[in-house]
Fold these 4 entries.
Entry 1:
Amino acid sequence: MSSETGEDRTLRVKDVRKAWPRADGGRRVVLDAVSFELEAGGTLCVVGGSGSGKTTLLHILSGITAPDAGSVSLGREDLTAMSESGRDRFRARHIGYMFQTFNLVGMLSAVENVALPLVFGGASPSAAKHRAGVLLERLSMSDRADQRPAALSVGEQQRVALARAVVADPWLILADEPTASLDPRNAADALALLESEATRTGASLVIVTHDPAVRGRYARHLVIGDGS
Ligand SMILES: Nc1ncnc2c1ncn2[C@@H]1O[C@H](COP(=O)(O)OP(=O)(O)OP(=O)(O)O)[C@@H](O)[C@H]1O
Ligand SMILES: [Mg+2]
């Protein structure tokens, strides 16, 4: 399916395989021939036990980790065929990643962290901070916007990470346990923001979750475990 502008933005995952080395010298197969397609604007919920490979899959979808075999493409762009620098540029422009461990920049305030992808994309720092501030306001974070991550609670850091993942209108939003540290009201606000930003920009959304309430919100699930 195409986006409003006619660009093909379908996420196509074909026969992706990944094994990690084990301490005993063997290899543990984490992803064994994972294939799916997600049309522009669609949402896929990824579920599976701890250690089943959910974060590994998101890393592969974003090009941070290379699969052992198989391919990942977004629209006409094949991430698995790009050079490393080409993949880094593509990720910065088109993929918003909300990390399970947040990966916020400790030296920057919350609003500066959220503004970062816009500044990388060439926006003026003041315009970028304004847009970042609007998103933080929608997550009830206005009064925390000037604090550095170390002064924020884990749930507040999680909301900063979410805002940073959506701020630059990515084609694909990858969210790893986006509500894990949030109370039910903030969790609902966070999911509503993810969904509304995805709808506004026509982005596809891949959400990893352990939470049955999150899982129940979405019709399409990918269950991973035992390498399958
Ligand atoms: N860089 C790595 N080197 C070796 N093994 C790894 C590496 N990254 C992940 N693994 C292993 O791969 C398996 C899957 O890890 P992954 O982080 O993808 O799980 P997960 O489903 O996200 O788990 P959780 O729900 O706890 O976040 C685990 O057994 C983990 O130890
Ligand atoms: Mg994980």
Entry 2:
Amino acid sequence: MMRTTIEVFGARVRQARILRRMTGKTVLAEMGWKGARQTRLEQADVTVLDVDTATRLAEVLRFPLEFFATAPVSRVDVGNLLFRAPKATSAMEREYLAQFAVSVGDLLEDLNSRWQLPPVKLPDLTRLTDPVAAARTTRERLSLDPDAPIGYLTYEVERAGVAVVLRARRTKSSGELEWGPGDGVREKHLGYATRVGEYGDRPLIVLRAVDSWERIRWTVAHELGHLVLHADGVREDEQEEQASRFASELLAPAAVIAAEVPKVASLHNLMPLKQRWGISLGALLRHLFESELIDAHRYAMLRRQLYTRINPETGHTWGRTEPGWDEREPEQPRLLAKWVERCYNATSPAMLAPRRLIWPQDLLEDILAGQRSAPSTSVTTPPKSTSSTPTNASTGAPPSGAAGWEHGSRSSAENSIPVSANGGKVLDFDRFRSKRQA
Ligand SMILES: [Zn+2]
């Protein structure tokens, strides 16, 4: 017997439309509908459509028909996004970010039902917790040495059950340039965190792929701070500052690094600290000041140096591309790729196509774009003894050959920061100093 009608979930219709960055009006016009039909459809729990109409709707929205007929699992409201969106962030953009998280959440539920994801090990604290204490507790929960640099932070975070998505510079599914030098930088935040899944208990961090390893690492730590401290939402600047304080303290506990801070700190002699603990000079300066390891005068002076001098390699200030900015590869997540591999035996997003999942292929590719591949070189937990080894930068480096999940974030043609012709790695502080004195 031929099926002639199909039950369509309103939330799915809305989700697909937002992920395609289409307005209700556009869908209405393309469907040849009138009045509030699209709105009614989106607001209804379930609507019975004839199969032809549903198929046409699926075509307009470029989602598989099954997507609309599958009950939504995750629910993320804009208010559940843990970030203080800059004022310029439109309501549409926030909706987009929320619905993107919902898609990841549903995919995670699907994967979890096939192979259980790592249990969540984050401490449950509140905004009343001192960020320094929160960072210590988090290190403890993640079984990290309280006194040692964290090697590959993203890996540790995923091991604690937090899914991480690195969004590529261009999305395939919404057909738009998300951010970049020429697009007026519609997205000003570097990432956001939320909780997804049927019961809203799977923490998720969504990051923008940027070229700065310092920024990616620190953003992971910052978002982790939101997850640990701000389960009830982020509404004020104060919480942003808490998350930032948490981030720096997590990466470089002030009580531990105090012994390594030179008596008269300079950008030059702080470099070993940056390299060893994997924290940007910009964040480090502020951290040292807030932890009373440098005074206000020195802080202001070093900050001024960092943000006014031009890095001759990149043409940006040293604040934007710091000395050592290309010493590590930016961290990449791996958990999602690993689970897709486990559950679907797929080692690239393309291999998912024949599985006919409910999500469109281009959206899956967007979700998986930033994942790290190469199980042969998979990251191991850095040895605890690194606390006494000044060469920690090597454990912080990701495995080479992370190219399997292509469309990754590192396509150099799209980099906003030009890579030096000789392949980078040439930037050292002595050159900066000599330029300065010249
Ligand atoms: Zn934040």
Entry 3:
Amino acid sequence: MSKQVSKAYSIEDLRLAARQRLPRAIFDFFDGGAEDEKTLRDNVAAYQRRRLLPRVLTDVSAIDTNALIVGKQARLPIAIAPTGAVGFGRRGGDIAIARAAAAAGIPYTLSSTATASIEQIAKAAPGRLWFQAYILRNKPFLASLIDRAYAADYEALVITVDLPVGGKRERDFRNDFAVPFRFTPKNMLDFAQHPSWLSDIVRYGMPVMENLIGLESQTTNASAIASSVGRNYDPAFNWESLQKIRDTWPRKLIIKGILNPHDAVRVADMGCDALVVSNHGGRQLDGAVATLDALAGIVRAVEGRIPILLDGGIRRGADIFKALAMGAAGVMTGRATLYGVSAAGEAGAQRALEILKDELVRTMQLCGTSAIGNIDRSFIFND
Ligand SMILES: Cc1cc2nc3c(=O)[nH]c(=O)nc-3n(C[C@H](O)[C@H](O)[C@H](O)COP(=O)(O)O)c2cc1C
């Protein structure tokens, strides 16, 4: 293990190491959110607002972190959230995260906008694989992606529903961030100051969004990836269109991007297998509720009919504990492994998961509970 990785004690340490290695435009694309980033910050703050109420003297010598995640046991109550464009931070980064997930015994979700293809991931990573689809205007192309995921034995399809249009991500505008890169004086200087990152690009070239090769206008223009959404993604997609996907996809179907309890009930009614309470990591609607705050209402409304996952702001094992205590069956993490892989490749992604696991185990011990299934609302302090 490199010194940099072994000296990372927290997800924040990995974040800082990623910030050091990456050009600012890339780091900000990963790290940033929409507009004033209120929701981005609030996702994290919602965990900080809640305090734990531990029990003691309960024999916590053996801790079991196994959890049922969408119908199958995982070794941790975690699944990797889909993140696009990972390869811009680290060559081979998608595969590295997928392999780290497999080694940790948790599901990995491949993004539609990943820099590795559906087949490359299936070949390189032996674990549970989910494929995340954005709803493209080009329906034959979308159907071919879903068919490919089926053929490559992905166990679940994740439909992201909180991106009818792109969020307004101002860091990207300010940094001249675009795919492929436009070389402006500003970002040339930025790239030149990050030689370890730049040497990979010089040697291998810029990565591409492998799953979108052949889709008209996959390359985005000068003003951020978000701007491509208007051209390629379908803002007319609605409940009826989702029902058609439910009717034709025979495996697990997971709906990601739910914040409103009414929508959660509708997802359960239409026979989906799970939902993800998510605001896209604060990258879409700025001012949307923090996911931990949205969770309780959704748990009440769904009444246990389908499992509820949650993402956004998970930076500590204690955050996972709090999400489970508030009724989530598990969490998804986006930036945690993204920072890790950007800082130090596969070892960095592994380190991110190791940190979260170690902190979760310690939190369980300090809260006096030895199994995931025993974590409930009684551990959250209410005055
Ligand atoms: C750089 C980046 C790219 C993302 N790309 C996608 C994507 O392609 N599809 C998707 O459904 N969500 C995407 N997301 C959102 C994540 O799946 C997830 O909801 C979010 O990162 C969770 O918040 P966290 O990063 O605080 O853990 C992306 C997030 C980031 C940070």
Entry 4:
Amino acid sequence: MSGVRERIRQHLQVLAEEVGARPPGSPANRQATAYVEQVLTNAGYPPLAAPFTTRWWEPGDGHLEVGGVPVGVMPNPYSPAGDVRGRAVPVAGIDQLEALPTAAGEVLVLTDELASGQLLPAAFPFLDLPEHRRIRAALHRLAPTAVVAVSDHWEPILEDPDLPFPSTTIPTELGCDLQPGDDLHLVVSGAVHPGDGVNLSARIGDSDRRLVLCAHLDSKATTPGAFDNAASVAILLALTELGHLDGLPVEVVLFNGEDHIDSCGEVAWLAATDLGRVVGACNLDGVGLIGRRTSLTSLACPEPVASQLGDWVTCHDRWVPAEPWVESDHAIFALRGIPAVAITTEDVHALLGGLAHTADDTLEVLDLDLLAGIAADLPSLVTLLATALTTPAPHDQGG
Ligand SMILES: [Zn+2]
């Protein structure tokens, strides 16, 4: 598998260094998909493209002044550009937000309950929550001049192209002195553009009933996305082109929208696919971090398969079992009752804050030997899954 390590390194260099940030719809994203398409075509598996249109955000700068004193900030993704002033109106909870008569001419400062996690954007297709709907409706009705969220959550609180005011998220330590009536001046740049893109999928074996082996190739606009998720894509490309998946009933799918507000790629792929022929899915997202083991969990798997997976993990060094997590591209299968396996890094949720979606997610955080080891182990895992899920259970065999 020494060739695998070198190919993984080369794919990573193209995706995370030469292309870099590749949000769906952007020119960089099309560069990434053109590269992936070429690799799969050269491997003898010209991929099918599931196209989509979307909106992508070109990052800009941010600047906030409190009573004339500058505070450096990052604009929220998809914030409209603007240079606006207004009085600060701190709001800590949903009830308090809904009780405001208006916020015209004012800057809403979201804290506590309103800034404890990312507000789901209206465009996200797979989940909505009643409290998030209430917050979005109140923000639209109040029509503030701008919004400043004060939060230590690892992601910006607002990332929603349908919110019409400039906004930013600032860390709690910078926002703790903001008082009602403070004079705020917010300047944000950046732009939202229309764009298009594709998912790419390559059928390996000739069986119509197949296991989807997938990873997302897109990244946020603010990161080279080496760990999240060029490393997984590099593994799947290397395995495909070096023939390690040949003959398996597998469809390799490179999704293009896992880190995007409207999951444009996943929606397009689902619309173009007969899920009745998909026996299961195995998703890689966030693998190969230096000093960490690789984790595996299963969702919606029948018991014999789940315990076979447990045995497989026990027999393989540097793999650990994980608790099920309902996110990323395995969730779109599991939530439809299709058995799904998720592969990531142990304790990944504790690691996300300082790494994923940031400029620090570069090749330096990755262990190439670990990635090559994952690639070496994957064919046996895929074979186990494909065999277990395409073989009818004894009671289905008739007679
Ligand atoms: Zn990811």
